[in-house]
Amino acid sequence: MDQILLQSPLLTPTPIWLIALPLLVAFLSPLWGRARWPLLFGVHLGLFALALWLLAGVQDGPLIETLVIAPPLGIHLHADAVSLLLVALLTFAVALVAAFLWQGARAPHWQSRQAFVLIMLLSAGCNGMLLTGDLFNLYVFIEIAGVSAYLLSALRRDAAALEAGLKYLIIGAVSAVFILFATVLTYITTGTLNLAAIGMAFADIPAAMQILIGLLLLVGLGIKAELFPFNVWVPEIYRGSDPEASALFSGVVVKAFLFVLFNLVFLILADPAVVGRWLMILGGVTMVIAELTALRQRDLRRMLAYSSLGQVGLITLALGFAETTVVAGGLFHLVNHTLAKLLLFMVAALMLSRASSGHLDALTGIARRLPLAAGLFVLGSLSMLGLPPLAGFMSKLWIMAGFAEAGVFWPIALILLGALLEAAYFFRWIALFYRPVPAPRLASDPVGLPTASSAVTWPLLVLAVLLIGFGLAPVLLEPALNLAAEVLLDRSGAIEAVMGVRP
Amino acid sequence: MSRAAPHPVRISARLMLVVCGWLFLLQVAVILLTLGQTATETVGDGLLARTMETGAANAVTAVVVSFRGFDTLGEVTVLFLAATGIGLLFSARPERTGTNTGPGSLDEGLAEGNPPVPTMAAPPPERVLSQPNEILANGIRLIYPVLLLFGVYVVVHGHLSPGGGFQGGVIIATAFMLRMLADPSFVLPPIVIAVLESFSGSGFVLFGLIGLVLAGTFLGNVLPHSAASTGLLVSAGVIPLIYILVGIKVGAEVGAIFQDMLEHHPHQEH
Amino acid sequence: MTALIALTLFVWMIGGALFAVRQTDLLQAIIGLSLLSLGAVGQFFLLQAPDVALTEAAIGVAAGTFVLLMALRQMGRDESADPSHDQRDQRDQRGESHP
Amino acid sequence: MLDALDTPGVHHALYAVGSMALFSIGLYGLLTRRHLLKIFMSLAIMEMAVYLLFIGLTTQPGRTAPILSDGLVEFAGTADPVPQALTLTALVIALAVLALGVSMSIRYHQLTGTTDVETMSALKDP
């Protein structure tokens, strides 16, 4: 690995820039003045390009960046085909949200310096979680991402937002204590914090301790990754927060935590099959319960929150199977869900700016006022429930084909059931949006609103184009996803890259 | 909104007692069973063996600032976030208070012209810090410079003796806090805090990037740090410099947090 | 010998923790928490961790307590003073603290 | 006779039992208390227990602090510095989260007069 580092580090950017640059820009925030949103957008676009550039360089093996002292003694960044793919996805998502806020957010709380700092550091925290190769460093980045998320959800500072922020903070702090406890027990028993070194030593520690550490991590990360039964808090947070913040939670933070959870499972456990089965069951239960509950929701944000939980369950179901085709499909679905959920939450933000609340009745007939937004909502929800030719269809098909190939059929039944339930509630909302309303109700349309410029729709259009494009030509992503799935499952390769020996 | 059925506090408290007791026994059993098989060789031993290379006399400081300096960068970031958030929470009155519907995001402009919605909000808190008595005020005035000096000493000697940026920074912030208690007119100007936290935070990252360029790794030690100078005030290369930045940062952030919590009148956002 | 000191400190800390959790007067609960932190300072000294002890003294005993006291000034001392508590709950909690 | 107690086994068992007792007390408080400040205090107790367990179980009795002073010239027979360094980091993070949570509670209390998590229900389904 040294030959990479010995080249001039300024000419060959290293993965550390993905974390250091957002930190630097956030610390210097008083300097930026009015240029904040363009800067946020530009920085993330730059990071996206950097991640893609680095991704091209890790096709043959991971890039290990030493920080101060070589692993396993020190902290290192572990940039491989799957973590960089997710970094690229998440920085792209943040860039789109930044563009949306730049053009559309007129509310004073989004104009503040603090909002800029929070989004920047949320992204730095997520990048760090994806890239770090050290367990305690992971905890630190979880706290960075967590604290920014608590504050983002309380950003509006009214009672509802503060309630959401407080609940998020309490549940997040509980999860952090459990993760810290697991880290401590790991250090006590293995004497190391490096993930690869833990992977080599973990099988030798007593079985009871393995189970205890595993359970603590499962509770801690399960809370953050919104898995059943640790996810009861999610809908309330999403309802209290602004939809723009919820888009970041659902599209960015949860995805980072899902990766962390599965990376730990695949990297540390010598035989992830048993745990994988349990995670599949957990994912299946999450999906079915969430989709069933989503049917009854009468608030747009709560409905989207439950739908998000359902998709997270589906992704968990696919990744837990630990088989290359299905995992590649799961990662594909992860990408699609991020794109579609960003679209849906941003459309929800547009709709809520025109309606008195997110309640069913208040949104009836909204399509007359916001035809484009309603159309994009239809597109996003069709992709979500998996209708051809949209991307969600391809990824669900991919996952089901993988399961069928392996001869396991119960997940297929669950996925189809989930899609049916999704169709039921999404079509209910769509029908509502397009229901003709008597004139007096339209007259209550708030006037004198500072209208967002029409440029606000272009991030949404980008997302829509991507959803259609990936649906028509999944081959665009196929090589990257297959490689990512192989790398994610290749435990001995990852350990060898750091430790120099095969386990 | 009607509340759900009355919470059966008593039963649930007993149940939780049983659950916690059971978890306690389980955890203790697992840990005791493992005690014989804890790690004999840890990363710490490897780092101790290499601490001499850094020229720091305090191995904990060498680990915190150099070997695991990346953690410390993350940690001051969390503190920065918390201070930013607390400043935001206390900066100005939110325009509206609790409604069940939870207003949308982009419609905040709507509320501007409306009269304030009456709510069940508590009366504004009395911000009377009762006028401090003379003895307390004079005592604090006496102790204030000593405490500041002690804080600076702890920061600067972080690589030689127990203490360092965090401890010294919190001591300095505590000195400010006592001063604020004794003397209500004493304030840390927000602009100074903003400059200090920006300067120290970006300085930390810049030290990291300089290390990346000159020493090959992020946060690499680019200044001379011979083992022979161990124990001198000027030793250990960038470690004391970074720890001083951490001290400034922690002092500014914790001082700002204290100040925000002490005085609840809104101050200007910038 | 150190084992005995550690044991004594643990008794002290557990007392502080129980006090912090059970006491319904929040001011006293906060005092219990700072007693716990003080015990932890002693433990860390005993464990040859002077850095951590100094940090715990500065953060746990001073800063953390101050932060909680500031909240107390705003929110009142009584744990069950919340208007939404109904009578029954209060009675139950009192009953529970004297079993 | 008392020195016979100072074996690593006795020490570590003591720290395991003691810190887990604190952890359980914190967990009990977290699960049963409803006042916001009490919840943050319970979390602080749990965190404290984790730090104590960490340093207690990684330090052997008879080691010295990992600092060169008073004529020490090399790090031999000193305690493991890594747990101490990590605890430092975690302590500061915990203070940040505590201060933030308490500030949010103060603000929430100012707006609604509520201090009880179970009556925070504006976001529940109507």
UniProtKB/TrEMBL annotation, chain A:
Recorded GO CC terms: plasma membrane
Entry keywords, A to Z: Cell membrane, Membrane, Transmembrane, Transmembrane helix
Bilayer-spanning residue ranges: 15-32, 39-58, 81-102, 114-132, 138-156, 168-188, 208-234, 246-269, 275-292, 304-322, 334-352, 372-390, 410-434, 455-477
Residues annotated as domain NADH:quinone oxidoreductase/Mrp antiporter transmembrane: 133-419
The keyword Repeat appears for this protein: no
InterPro entries: CPA3_Na-H_Antiporter_D (IPR050586), ND/Mrp_TM (IPR001750)
Keyword Ribosomal protein included in the entry's annotation: no
Membrane topology term: Multi-pass membrane protein
Localisation: Cell membrane; Membrane
Similarity remark: Belongs to the CPA3 antiporters (TC 2.A.63) subunit D family.
Protein name: Sodium:proton antiporter
Species the sequence originates in: Thiocapsa imhoffii
UniProtKB/TrEMBL annotation, chain C:
Subcellular location: Cell membrane
TM regions (residue ranges): 29-47, 54-72
Stretches assigned to the MrpA C-terminal/MbhD domain: 12-77
Keywords: Cell membrane, Membrane, Transmembrane, Transmembrane helix
InterPro entries: MrpA_C/MbhD, Nuo/plastoQ_OxRdtase_6_NuoJ
Pfam families: MbhD (PF13244)
Disordered: annotated span: 77-99
Taxonomic superkingdom: Bacteria
Statement: the UniProt record of this protein carries the keyword Transmembrane: yes
Any one GO CC term of the record: plasma membrane
Its membrane topology: Multi-pass membrane protein
Name under which the protein is recorded: Sodium:proton antiporter
Organism: Thiocapsa imhoffii
UniProtKB/TrEMBL annotation, chain D:
Main location: membrane
Protein family: Belongs to the CPA3 antiporters (TC 2.A.63) subunit C family.
Bilayer topology: Multi-pass membrane protein
Name listed for the protein in its UniProt record: Sodium:proton antiporter
InterPro entries cross-referenced by the UniProt entry: CPA3_antiporter_subunitC, NUOK/Mnh_C1-like
Statement: the UniProt record of this protein carries the keyword Transmembrane helix: yes
Organism per entry: Thiocapsa imhoffii
Entry keywords, A to Z: Cell membrane, Membrane, Transmembrane, Transmembrane helix
